[in-house]
Amino acid sequence: MKTTKKSMLSSSVSTKSSKLVTMTALAAACTMLLSAPVNAAETNAAATSVPSAVDSSKRVIRLAQPKADSTAQSSTQPAPQTNAPVAATQQSAPTQSLFPMSSGQPQTVTPAPTKPVYTGSTHVYEPGPMTTSGIDLRSGQLANIPTPKVQLSDVSFLKTVLIPQQTTANSDKLDVSLLDDFIQEASPNARHYPPNFPNRTQRYNVREKIKVLAEWIEPYALSPNASYDVLLRAAKLNGMGRNLDLGSDYTIRGGKYVDRAIKLQPDSGEANFLYGMMLSEGGGFKEGQKYLDKAVSLGYTEAEQSLAQSDVLSDRRDSALERLRRLESENPNNAMIGQQIKIVEEGKFYIWDIPAPDINVKPGA
User: Region Disordered: start and end of each range (predicted)?
Assistant: First the structure.
């Protein structure tokens, strides 16, 4: 019995040992199979200039393509793994080293830039002959150039107007030809309040031109010895600027200049009318009436119309109609007075609110 048990025990031990050997061999084979892709990935990653992407099981997902320079350097002199990021940074730099690490690395020699060589002769400009009318461009340096031809249309001429700058004797003259032409053209539209223009473009052009001309005449009008003619023109410009809502500065300057003009010439019908009109249309009916009455006594017809405007705004329509009808009988050729009578009869308030003619004013012209 003991012999039988021993034999059975030895057979079971041999069976277990054979199974253990079989499982050990199987485990070794599995280990080799799993380690093969990792070894291949490490070999390929070492040949590339950038690391490959791997998942959690160390299997290669994407392999970067090796660069030619990296392959050449890795075959001659492999870099240690600790310095791999530094080597990749150096390879990605745009500049090349002056002393290459390997003699087998190709070197690019940049040729020095060459200066362009200019051929031909140098021509030095020489001025042409001087004449009383200037340089004759048709001779000398500009041979065989056709003569330009210019055609002019809508030619107009302005009468030259020169006024004294100051009240002193032998004062310098000031050319106000363009200024007087503008005032004459824009006054029917902008002298009275409210201003009346056929369209916004013309209103804008007049506003811009007033800014330019008022700035031009300002230094002459600010002079303590400014002449009557300078002060009157400056007052007209600033008065129109006030009516066109250019600001209170225009109102103040306009009143100041016309007041100085009246002190120089107290019997000027135009200056008295201008001051009375500016005061009455600005709300100062009583203050402006004495200047308007004096202008009427000096034979200034437009002052009567301004007095009628003051009567309308002061709720004296009957007085305004009586004044305008009398004025119409004295001036039968003035069609504007009949239109003003109609405005008052219709119950309106501004007798100057009449369609004004088109004007051809351009800024900076």
Answer: 65-114
